[in-house]
Amino acid sequence: MIHHKTYYSLEVPFKEHSLLLEGPITSDALKSHEFHSGLVAFRTPEQQKKALLEIADLPEGRINVVRDGNMIVGYVTFVYPDPMERWSEGKMENLIELGAIEIAPEYRGAQVGKNLLRLSVLDDAMEDYIIITTEYYWHWDLKGSGLDVWEYRKVMEKMMNAGGLEWYATDDPEICSHPANCLMARIGKRVDTDSIQQFDQLRFQNRFMY
């Protein structure tokens, strides 16, 4: 199921110049770029860069980035779901997770995230995959953004919509633990019915419990 990774790039205007959106990029390319100090949503920039290098080398791993010159100022990762999560239970070769998306604070608000997701689904290979993302409010930069949970959720949802991801219901306990959390997914055009049914079974595991 693992596809050859086809490289795409896109320039988007930003203030007085333009940013380069590109990917999937290799670990060698990642190593050669600086990592913006504001990319701290998940861990320190150094540790996050290390995590991205590992993902870039995975057969199914894809990392698309936003570059300002030689500086990476944003990224999105696609990888198989964490083995600890229910989404990996079906061992589906055609289900990948948008694991993280982050844009450095001063680059937000210029549709950079939306454009990065649009770039991510330009690749025809994505039509063979179900792409999921699990959104948990405790990962969101509520303080930095000045938004409340529901405003932030709306921003996240709009950004994911740009990549073709839509809201899907689920009984996953972690997602159900707060009403702002959500599962979003994009089902590629060539995904077969059996895979869609399998995905539905992963979404709802407690339907017979009362």
Automatic annotation (TrEMBL):
GO MF assignments: acetoin dehydrogenase (NAD+) activity; acyltransferase activity, transferring groups other than amino-acyl groups
Keywords: Transferase
Pfam families reported in the protein's UniProt record: Acetyltransf_1
GO biological process, one term: acetoin catabolic process
Annotated ranges, domain N-acetyltransferase: 19-161
Keyword rRNA processing tagged: no
SUPFAM superfamilies the UniProt entry points to: Acyl-CoA N-acyltransferases (Nat)
InterPro entries membership: AcuA, Acyl_CoA_acyltransferase, GNAT_dom
Protein name: Acetyltransferase
